[in-house]
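Example complex used in Figure S2.
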Amino acid sequence: MSTDLTLTTKDFKSDQEVRWCPGCGDYAILATVQGFMPHLGIARENIVFVSGIGRSSRFPYDMNTYGMHSFHGRAPAIATGLACARPDLSVWVVTGDGDALSIRGNHLIHALRRNINLKILLFNNQIYGLTKGQYSPTSEQGKVTKSTPMGALDEPFRPLSLAIGAEASFVARTLDSDRRHLTDVLRQAVAHPTPALPWSRSTRTATSSTTAPSTPSRTPPPPTTPCCAWNTASPTGSPRTPTRSSTTPRTRTPPPPSLSPGSAAPPRSASCATCSALRTTG
Amino acid sequence: MTYVIAQPCVDVKDKACIEECPVDCIYEGRRALYIHPDECVDCGACEPVCPVEAIFYEDDVPVEWKDYHKANVEFFDDLGSPGGAGGLGPVERDHPLVAGQPVRAA
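Predicted assembly (388 residues):
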């Protein structure tokens, strides 16, 4: 990979309009990743962001690198091919809780087990934001949405457990609003020699999601940031020992959502259509 | 640069925006609030909740308040990037542009 030490955060901002709901945690994740990229020392033409479908998956539009807005849930498969064919590239997958854990969970687990040099960022907002608020695999039990008017019955899916079960060697969890911790997780994921799956939980706003950053192959899947209602992104990570962030969230910011089912939802944005819908139904 | 708090906030400081900000980047001065230009992530959550419509995207600040962009930037010259307004607490000073505003009648 060629290096260009003169890159700045601004160099990684595209000319596209960022289109998430006001207050969405994905904005914080985007800003953090754009701020982190110059530290990689990798030229923009050697960086690729591959996404699937969902709130999180607009990410490649907003990064001034190469990127691909691909098929629903298939980003890990496409990125696997790319990383194998071009080992000189820095390949990142951006996905969400619906995209990675529901639509095509199989691609995620196989990308994780193959030890390919990918970094998977999973933005877990615990809801389907793009389609206006149906429950997702990570929605907490009892959550009232358009598709679960009596409350979600299922136990929420646990991305980190899945990633560890798939033999991912780097799994981490972080929070969108904790920029320092998110950056640290990204740094650790990059330093990890094989795939890593960090996921960050994104809280707030209809377009929020939880994201888990992970490095693919041997690393747990990255956090996804769901849009709408939850946006916490948190990359974390030491190999096979996912840990919660030890940093305390800033005052006035919503606390990191608990991993336990049934935890209280973070505040919703007054200006978000999906959040409004959730508030009405909930 | 990102969102800017302009003149309507002076001597109002409703702080609804502070509650809404997901990254805690809106800092309290003596007479007005200020958005940290490097910590703001551009999410736009603050703009619709301001009861006096004092918050604008950088490119949309009305001509008469254009200087408030500079005020929001320069307010942090001495503070750097504290990483969160909650941890810092209120700052007992203002940018000269704000300090020079006539006191608003109660």
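The interface with chain A takes residues 18-24, 39, 41-45, 47-49, 83-87 of chain B (CB under 8 Å). The longest strand of chain B covers residues 3-5.
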